[in-house]
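Morning!

This is the sequence you dropped in the shared folder:
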Amino acid sequence: MKMLTAILLAAGLAAGPAFAGTIITPAGPGDAQGPAPINYYGSGGSQVQQIYDASYFAGPTQITGLSFRAYPGAAPSGFFSNTVNVSNLTVALSNTMVSANEASGAQPSTNFAANEGANLTTVFSGAVTLSTAATGQGPQPFDYTVNFTTPFLYDPSGGNLLVDFLIPQGATVSGSGFGFLTFDTANDLNDGVTSVVNLQGPGPAGTLSTAAAITQFHTASAAAVPEPASWALMIGGMLMTGGALRARRRIAASPLTA
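The structure's back. Tokens below.
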């Protein structure tokens, strides 16, 4: 049994489980602010696609939610609230073959459907309230959060990551004051994130933009899946242990001799 325990422990270590964490894309401070991917207070619908370069992800990643942060130095006031309510928001993720950089690769289409991958998956649909603890002192927390009801397994080997935010026609975006604290945004060429934006109402197309809200992706720990060598190690250990137990039974069953 000691041998079996050692073999199984070694195989478990070789399997290399992943741990929960977060991935920020792009990392570092923003240099712009904007309401996208949520339109300002009102109704009429909107759609925004943000495209993230695959290089931000080291390997297959289970994404369970995402967060944005208010732009640096922002604080609630009589004009800007720390809370925004969206009566109906749909978030969908997929791989995409379009580029997240303006100087290379196939550029995104202004037609939303043309950017979507075959594995497009709705990860959240329903009402959401986004609230921030921004104080106006230094960098703000990532706490405008949407927790997915359906996790998405993203494999960067299949292309870049597309996140689609849809507020359908008739849905409302509301809160106190004249507007909410807008998101910290990256707006540089070839920074690994780009977007297609339509905040003017429902429609099949938007406008290409170099700007995109800096996003913190929440990732889940995945159950360790042994590599083929680990499976061989475990199976070999079980066979060895089984043989040892059978031999021990035969010895115990043999009559004693003088």
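Headline: The CA atoms of residues 69 and 142 lie 4 Å apart.

More detail when I'm at my desk.
O.
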